[in-house]
Write a structure and sequence with these properties.
mainly alpha; 363 residues; two-stranded parallel ribbon; 58% helix; 2% strand
Amino acid sequence: MSQAVPARVVFAPRAPFFETLKARVRAHFASEGKRETGDWRLHAKTLFAFALFAASYVSLVWWVEHGWSAALAALGVVQGYVLIAFNVMHDGAHGSYSRKPWLNRLMGATMDLMGSSSMLWRQKHNQLHHTYTNIDGKDDDIAIGALLRLSPSQRWYPWHRLQHWYAPLLYSLLTLYLLLFGDWQKVLSGRIGTTPLQRRAWWETPYFVATKLFYVGYTLVLPMFFHPAWQVLVVFLGIHFVFGLTLSLVFQVAHTVDGTDFPQPDPASGRLEDDWATHQVKTTANFAPGNRLASFYMGGLNFQVEHHLLHHVSHVHYPAISRIVRQTCEEFGVPYKSFPSVRSAVAAHFRFLRGLGRSPVAA
């Protein structure tokens, strides 16, 4: 079993590292005359992502006549989803898309249109994952049950010896799992793992159900008026397999790789050795920082250290502030991990899976 985690986890007192970093980042934006939220680059990406999705969806439902054209349109739909999720929804949910709260909420709600729940994301991702990164029992992102071992403190099972082989299959089921089971289980149980859900407004549960039904309506029911049901189901599953695999890999290579920490609090006091900011850097890794295409496609999530420290800053600014973050980490002796490419980060993740699957002894 995973190590029992106290109900309250306490970080060490805030250190000068984070205060210095924030001051330098504020000075950077002041000197550049820029806001920390999104600018025309983010707005252009938003238009492109939605245009790609809309054009591909219309083509898929009403225009395609051959298998190859259906596959091409389906690829466009899933890439539109990915761009919206990484670039639009993620910034909106963190409040970094715009200075206007209503616009951030609207952009964050695009997650509801892709089959999941922005209500759950705000607590599961923004609060639990961004606060308790890689802490088994608190960070729901590494809680995959017995299927995968993603932390040295988690129980080892014999089938984990093969987890680096079957993990991609599980990753491809992510969005289907959220749509059909995971989100419903959280809402009905009132919990995310062991953490109770926050109190919801009266309209949030009906909204949750309505958006799930809307998603099923436009992805399954409507297309079945124009195409055989089996063909619609094949395309639907194919889109989800690619979408789930893409999302999973990007999020996994930022935290569950060789070299990231998996600290556990003291069982009695709930205390951790590091302050929150140092904890974030030690449990996180960047990848492909010089690859502009990767930064564009992934919404800056390849600058994951910058994102975890300064999630109120839009991802379009991460390349510029990454130099400040790296320099400040070096000055204060905080290890700053960065893989040179996407390929090397993915390889580090699967080495990590293989390593945790090899031995039942906690590292």
